[in-house]
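Q: Focus on the shape:
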Amino acid sequence: MPERFLKVAPPDADDWTADAVQSAGPSLPGALAPAFLPYGRQEIGDADIKAVIEALVSGWLTTGPRVTEFEQAFARYCGAREGVAVNSGTAALHAAMRALRVEPGDEVIVPALTFAASANAALYEGARPVFADVEQDTLLIDPVCVAMKITARTRAIVAVDYAGQPADYDALRDLAKGRGIALVADACHSPGATYRGRKTGTLADISCFSFHPVKHMTTCEGGMCTTDNSDMAAHMRRFRNHGIDSDHRSREAAGAHAYDMVELGYNYRIPDVLCALGLAQLPRLDGWIAARRRIAALYDAALAGVGDAVPLKLHGDRTHAYHLYVVRLAGHIDRDRVFTRLRAKGIGANVHYGPVHLHSHYRNLGYGPGMAPVAEAAASQILTLPIFPAMTEADVSRAVSTLKASIGGVA
């Protein structure tokens, strides 16, 4: 019997999109394409369902053995010594800030064009996000701009691997070196990508990943920090468990009941059931990334010579994980009208992202226009096209032909 797939991408708070909905019916070879093509879709197969059921009846629903198994498996996949699993990518970023001892009065440099969580994690610890501009052709954080933003208060640099392409970690490391500045990789878009032969998860002091349903693999909700620093890993494990120095499983094994809360932490624990799903999905991650690269290559070929919709540049010393496939429309094109037309024709286009410093909360904190001109200009021109492993060449052709038709007459 062929494997059953449930295609899932619900409208959650992180990376929200109105087109991220469940799509009824199977995704089997030869099946008709759905009427609406979402920008992202996760696959849940029989192996995933079996793993979750086994976890449900195992006697451990949370803080059990599958958490540790998943941490170790994902760390091995990345080539890192330690993995710390938490309940979201946002929690991973927050745990990184705490492990690096970011404090009130510190500054944390982040790119202006990213999901808000990249900057919010600094706010959670009372620090001040400092927004660096992005490169014109990749929309990755610009090391030249980062150098201009460094002050005596800079405690960390957060590099976001926008769309799935790693940032320039060697350049950023050179800026941080000798200054007491930590380097954090927001690698939520880039599991499996490489930078100069090194895999994401090993490129920074702490790397943060997300397992939200529109990402490469999912645990429904979940996140992971990877690091080679065992002290920081231990700190993050306490932090995710209210700041307590042990968890229920370790006390059960020791036949003990006492515990000590050694610092103020949060409940960022991830259940065993979700880690069971992650363990089942992880072996298929490389195949899904390969499928995303195949789809991106089809887009690249179909868009060659289309001057009004240009894909982002790919650096030759990196491999791309293609969480997103982003094109930049010509300046005379009304992006929002193209977006509306695409969606009306069943193409689930999206926009990633509006500049963080222009959100209302950040404006209320004193941020505003003009702080990152490249990011601000790009935000009105970028468009995310559908990309997920089950897409076919016909899906790509449909998306591109609809894009071309939608561009016509919307200047």
Q: What stands out?
A: The first strand starts at residue 6 and ends at 8. The mean pLDDT is 91. DSSP finds 14 helices and 15 strands in the chain. The chain has two domains: 6-43+284-407, 49-283.
